TrEMBL record:
Its EC number is 6.3.5.13, 3.5.1.2. The lipid II isoglutaminyl synthase complex catalyzes the formation of alpha-D-isoglutamine in the cell wall lipid II stem peptide. The GatD subunit catalyzes the hydrolysis of glutamine to glutamate and ammonia. The resulting ammonia molecule is channeled to the active site of MurT. It holds the Pfam family GATase_3. GO terms for molecular function: carbon-nitrogen ligase activity on lipid II; glutaminase activity. It comes from Leuconostoc fallax. The keyword Cell wall biogenesis/degradation applies. Belongs to the CobB/CobQ family. GatD subfamily. It catalyses: beta-D-GlcNAc-(1->4)-Mur2Ac(oyl-L-Ala-gamma-D-Glu-L-Lys-D-Ala-D-Ala)-di-trans,octa-cis-undecaprenyl diphosphate + L-glutamine + ATP + H2O = beta-D-GlcNAc-(1->4)-Mur2Ac(oyl-L-Ala-D-isoglutaminyl-L-Lys-D-Ala-D-Ala)-di-trans,octa-cis-undecaprenyl diphosphate + L-glutamate + ADP + phosphate + H(+); L-glutamine + H2O = L-glutamate + NH4(+). This is Lipid II isoglutaminyl synthase (glutamine-hydrolyzing) subunit GatD.
Length: 243
């Protein structure tokens, strides 16, 4: 019997799961089981309480504007606990719509403003904004490749978003765009890394296509919980998959 457990919260897994973002959990489980770690997943959705101490990893997937308006209202009740989780170095992966809602606010395609929880220094605008100079009315859709400037790792994905996201000067991007659009199609940033939060527009899902990132995120989560074990070394021995 494995003696280690990774407790995962799938935030709004029933509403925010564009292009099978749940596959990110499957990818983590795939590597975790090979190193005798059991993965337990709980969907935390509308009206459920999120307790940061209960979880070692949080997935907040993508969703369309309509779902985001519903989620944004509920998210207010979870904001303080999520902030606490993030500032205590909890590991979290936020994709597309989830990534947008961790910022201060977003302007939807219909011009409506929706507040995020402001945990990360980022905001999202839409085609109505004068800051959007390129491809004004187009969605940013297609294959995308980025390079992580800290590790040199290259990540592949698929993006499909209307929102244009801008991260603050003090925030680090997940990577620099090699091909595709990224956060806004203008500044060559894709995603964000803030403490142990990884934000990205990549579907695919990002962790099934990029085993290097899956291992890095899994090692980060497990090291927070079981700091006496060298999880990075344990995971290095496994083949890195790209499905
Ligand atoms: N509704 C958001 C946008 O279009 C997010 C889309 C998504 O999560 N795929 O920008």
């Amino acid at each position: 019997m494995p003696q280690y457990t990774l407790n995962i919260a799938h935030l709004y897994g029933d509403l925010m799961n564009t292009y099978g973002d749940y596959g990110n959990i499957i990818a983590l489980r795939y590597y975790a089981e090979q190193i005798d770690v059991t993965v337990k997943t709980t969907v935390i959705s509308l009206d459920n309480t999120f307790k940061s101490a209960d979880f070692d990893f949080v997935l907040f997937g993508g969703g369309q504007d309509y779902e985001q308006t519903i989620v944004a209202k509920d998210l207010k009740s979870k904001a303080a606990e999520l902030q606490h989780y993030i500032e205590n170095d909890g590991t979290l992966l936020a994709i597309c719509g989830g990534f947008q809602l961790l910022g201060s606010h977003m302007i939807m395609a219909d011009g409506q403003r929706v507040d995020g929880i402001g945990a990360l220094d980022l905001y999202t605008i839409n085609m109505h904004d004068s800051q959007v100079k390129v491809a004004k009315d187009a969605r940013l859709t297609g294959n995308i490749v980025i390079k992580n400037n800290q590790t040199g790792e290259v990540y592949h994905g698929f993006e499909n978003h209307q929102g244009r996201t801008f991260i603050g000067d003090q925030e680090l991007a997940l990577g620099t765009v090699i091909s595709g659009n990224g956060n806004n199609g203008m500044d060559n940033h894709e995603g964000i890394i803030h403490r142990n939060v990884f934000g990205s527009y990549f579907h695919g899902p990002i962790l099934t296509r990029n085993g290097n990132l899956a291992k890095r995120i899994l090692a980060t989560s497990l090291s927070q919980k079981y700091p006496d074990i060298n999880w990075e070394d344990n995971l290095k021995q496994l083949p890195t998959e790209s499905f």
